[in-house]
Every structure is written in C-alpha cells, then in structure tokens.
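dumping this here so i dont lose it
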C-alpha cells in the first residue's frame, strides 16, 4: 500500500522508453489482477521494450537487459536462489521488490541488503534511499543536498515575502517641513 508497484512500474517504463533497455517485469503477485491492469492504464505503462510475465518459467532471459522481480517474496525466492540466479545471468541489471516487516526490515532477512548496490524504501509514494554502494560519499552528499534544499527553499520564501512587502507597503509619505516664521515678540 505504500506505492512500491506504481513506483517500479514508472521506473520500468523510464528504463524501456527513455534508456531503451529491454525490460522484463516479473509481476508474480499482481499480474492478471484488475488493480494491476488499472495501474498500467492509469500511468500509461506501455513500451515495446517492456514485457510483463507472471514468473520466469520458459523465459529466454538473453532477450533482456533489466529484470524486475516484483516481488521476490511472492516468487518465493530466498537469498540463495537469487544469488544463484544472478550468478547464472551476471550481465543483467536487477531490480528487486522486497516486502518489509512491520519493523521495517526486509521480509526474509536483512541479508538481502548486503547483495544490493542500491537499496531504498518507498515511503508515502517516494523513494527514500537507504544505501548506495556506488558512491561512498552518498550519505554526506545526501545530507548536504537536504540541507542545501532547505536553505534554498527558505531563501526563496524570504525573497517572495520581501517582494510582496514591497508591493503592498505604501510609499512613505514625506510631509513638507513648515517654514519657521520669525517671532514678532520682543
């Protein structure tokens, strides 16, 4: 319910249409359900480079660059199965959807994260990156980006407030200084 499938569907379309990757989307849990079909229609998830299947039986994986497994839990794939599968097809990019427990851990164990180059969590329909092995400075950069974004947002809001003030504040009225009359008293 957090938006994993919609997020991954949009990513699959991007990979297929924009990056011209041959994408195999294994939708074991949802393929054939009306809700899945509605998501595909609603978000226009169609591309000649994108194929959907229920499972991997009889599929020629040589025809694909990227394999999306949604979800490894519904495929009943354990970590050893995945490692063997990956080792048999090392030239593929893999995207795994792993369900989480109520505590936020990966269903099936934390060891899954050790096999991934990149791990994230969908929270309120947004991807929150938790790990990025490809960039050792990732956490520092992420924190800096968040801080920079907050500073930029605050600066923009201040500029807007200042402009609104300039337009709404009346110009100061300068009254003429009355001429001082010489006193006629002696």
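and the seq i came up w/
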């Amino acid at each position: 319910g957090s938006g994993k499938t919609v997020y991954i569907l949009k990513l699959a379309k991007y990979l297929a249409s924009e990056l011209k990757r041959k994408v195999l989307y294994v939708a074991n849990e949802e393929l054939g359900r009306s809700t899945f079909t509605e998501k595909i229609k609603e978000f226009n998830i169609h591309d000649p480079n994108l194929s959907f299947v229920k499972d991997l039986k009889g599929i020629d994986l040589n025809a694909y660059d990227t394999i999306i497994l949604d979800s490894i839990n519904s495929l009943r794939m354990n970590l050893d199965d995945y490692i063997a599968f990956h080792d048999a097809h090392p030239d593929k990019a893999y995207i795994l959807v792993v369900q989480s427990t109520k505590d936020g851990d990966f269903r099936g164990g934390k060891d899954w994260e050790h096999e991934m180059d990149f791990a994230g969590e969908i929270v309120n329909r947004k991807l929150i990156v938790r790990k990025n092995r490809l960039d050792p400075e990732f956490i520092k950069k992420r924190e800096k980006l968040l801080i920079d974004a907050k500073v930029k947002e605050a600066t923009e809001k201040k500029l807007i407030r200042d402009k609104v003030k300039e337009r709404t504040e009346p110009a100061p009225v300068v009254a003429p200084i009355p001429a001082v009359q010489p006193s006629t008293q002696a």
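Residues 104-108 have pLDDT under 50 and may be disordered.
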